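Anyone up for a design puzzle?
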């Protein structure tokens, strides 16, 4: 249960009701992360536009890489809600729950490509924010032939998930198995 008042789809009216309808049409259902933003419909719309651009827009990063980065960022933040949601999305690509579980709990045992390894390391380092200088990390990625646009997109995914993780944790969005049913990833 969220820590603040939320407006459920059945109690929504006006602009929020239409936003909920649009979300249901495009995403399959209304997630808790949507409901916790219901008191500010304009921000909810802006959030979803950002999400769609970062996670589904044209990018040199593959879809699974964006979901992988999201899972690593969420695991670093210990955000169970986002871990569960985006682990489900990643399973659409990886197909093996044992592999996604290793990504969450013990990535060193996972046989990732060099590029995926570098992307995951950046997600963890930037999320932990133990340094103010990531130039060496970026240089290593560039030397591994990861193009600057892919690096930009990776940092945007990391920043986005840190934003959403903080919102979910701060406002108390709860994960439930029921929420996973019918959601379009």
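Challenge accepted. My sequence:
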């Amino acid at each position: 249960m969220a820590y603040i008042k939320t407006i459920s789809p059945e109690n929504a009216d006006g602009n929020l009701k239409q936003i909920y309808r649009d979300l249901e049409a495009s995403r399959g259902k209304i997630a808790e992360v949507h409901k916790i933003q219901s008191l500010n419909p304009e921000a909810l719309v802006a959030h979803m536009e950002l999400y769609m651009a970062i996670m589904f827009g044209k990018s040199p990063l593959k879809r699974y890489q964006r979901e992988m980065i999201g899972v690593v960022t969420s695991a670093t933040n210990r955000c169970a809600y986002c871990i569960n949601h985006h682990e489900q999305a990643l399973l659409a690509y990886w197909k093996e729950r044992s592999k996604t579980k290793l990504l969450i709990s013990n990535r060193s045992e996972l046989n990732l490509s060099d590029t995926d390894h570098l992307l995951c390391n950046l997600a963890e380092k930037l999320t932990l924010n133990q340094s103010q200088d990531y130039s060496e990390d970026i240089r290593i990625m560039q030397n591994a032939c990861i193009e600057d646009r892919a690096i930009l997109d990776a940092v945007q995914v990391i920043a986005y998930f840190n934003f959403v993780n903080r919102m979910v944790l701060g406002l108390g969005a709860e994960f439930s198995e029921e929420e996973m049913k019918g959601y379009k990833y």
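A detail worth pointing out: The mean pLDDT is 94.
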